[in-house]
Amino acid sequence: MSIAGKRVLLIISGGIAAYKALELIRLLRKAGCAVSCVLTAGGAHFVTPLSLQALSEEKVYTELFSLTDESEMGHIQLSRSADLVVVAPASADLLAKMAAGMADDLASTLLLATDTRVLVAPAMNVRMWLHPATQANMMLLGQRGVAVVGPDEGAMACNEFGPGRLAEPPAILAAIEVLLAEPIRLPAPGLRTLEAPRRLAGRHVLVTSGPTHEPIDPVRYIANRSSGRQGHAIAAALAGLGARVTLVSGPVVVADPAGVDVVRVETAAEMLAACQAALPADAAVFAAAVADWRVAHAAGQKLKKGPDGAAPGLALVPNPDILATIAAAGPGRPRLVVGFAAETHEMLVHAQDKRARKNADWIVANDVNPASGIMGGTENEVHLVTTEGIEDWPRMDKQAVAVRLAERIAEALA
Ligand code: CTP
Q: Are residues 114 and 216 located together in one domain of the fold?
């Protein structure tokens, strides 16, 4: 629906995400919507009244007891002249003030005085968002008919990961359009979450993760040191962007990511069968450390030491290459196939060779020298090898790598 001719009162509270309010104003203005901005003292640490004024082309309100503002437009009138009040970013502090009914600055006073619908876009540190106090405040606000968009999940400015990031400006705009299309002003019971249209909604992505275990006999197996952390984090990040994710995982101790279909397997042969059963997929990410070989004839009973104590000879045969099988050209090939290359030397040469040999679109290459501490650790330093060349990403948390890769996948599938 068109929001042209409508008026939004935009309250910008404190937090690093305040800069995104500028983009929101630009989107609203482009849609023909008038925007009056109110900047809290906290918000003014991150954006200036001047930049808000330049983009909104209107006076920006910052002080409760400004006589000029009072003579031009009283705060009651300001709060009621809009078709919708939007708080973006909404800090934990401002949400708490709203829940408590406080009115000690212009923003909280307007929010208490308004009879207009209110949409909040929270943005804060993940612990602050998950704190029972904030969650209780959100429940209370929801009961009073306040709508919410976001927060998104992802890597945060404070180097943590989880929910707390401000919803992207296009998602906030979409939520504004939904609310402005609704004629009712009465509070709706329960917290009203306006789902942002997420970038991978409607897409199916297959992810492999963890090691495989190749049996020698019923009690022994060949394995490797993969923890599954990187693959699981990728599955979580893709689900966070709205994808339907099938995670085919070898034996790992890390927890299943929320909102992901997990298929547990042991061997490479089982992993291949599970991947084939999960197709079709729009994209596939092969993060598993698949054993290259398996024992040709695994014993049905535990191998016993012979009278001479000699070690049994284990004949090994190659495992199927899951990535190469799924990436082979054909009608069922996912549109984007991403492989990993774990190397100890000449990393980029091997990665480029693997990309060509396995018909992958991208290879995420990383150094697994024990000195790098990457294999089994929490951080990763990767190089993304694509048709366009090689991107060197800085060393970061595996979850941050996952978020960045998921965002790149969303761009590629757009
Ligand atoms: N891979 C796979 N199936 C296998 C072996 C590897 O799907 N049987 C995938 C991995 O998940 C990874 C990529 O192939 O995405 C590269 O794995 P890697 O073990 O580094 O490559 P290999 O082909 O086994 O090469 P090498 O061991 O010679 O380095």
A: no
Q: Is the CB of 292 under 6 A from ligand 1?
A: yes
158 catalytic residue (yes or no): yes
44-68 per-residue burial string, b: 16 or more CB within 10 A, e: under 16: bebbebebbeebbeeebbbebeeee
Q: Which of 228, 227, 235 is nearest to 281 (CA)?
A: 235
Same structural domain, 188 and 214: no
Ligand 1 atom at shortest distance from the alpha carbon of 363: 15
- Give per-residue pLDDT as tens, 96-147: 999 999 999 999 999 998 888 999 999 999 889 888 899 999 988 988 889 9
Q: What CATH number has the domain bearing residue 379?
A: 3.40.50.10300
Query: Is 289 found in the same domain as 154?
Result: no
Same domain, 63 and 158: yes
User: Residues 226-279: pLDDT tens digits?
Assistant: 899 999 999 988 987 889 999 999 999 998 887 789 999 999 999 999 999 999
Residue 256 within a domain: yes
Answer whether 286 contacts ligand 1 (Cβ < 6 A): yes
pTM of the model: 0.63
Overall size of the chain counted in residues: 414
Q: Ligand 1 centre and the CA of 289: distance in Å?
A: 7
Q: Which two tokens stand for residue 285?
A: 């990410």
- Same domain (yes/no): 187, 319: no
Mutate to test the pocket of ligand 1, among 226, 267, 323 (most ligand atoms within 8 A of CB): 323
Of 132, 160, 193, the one marking the end of a domain is 193
Smallest Cα–Cα separation from 214: which of 271, 253, 131, 263?
Answer: 271
Instruction: Check pocket membership of 295 for ligand 1, CB cut-off 6 A.
Output: no
- Minimum-distance ligand 1 atom for the alpha carbon of 339: 15
Show the domain range for 289.
204-297+307-413
- Flag whether 198 is in a domain: no
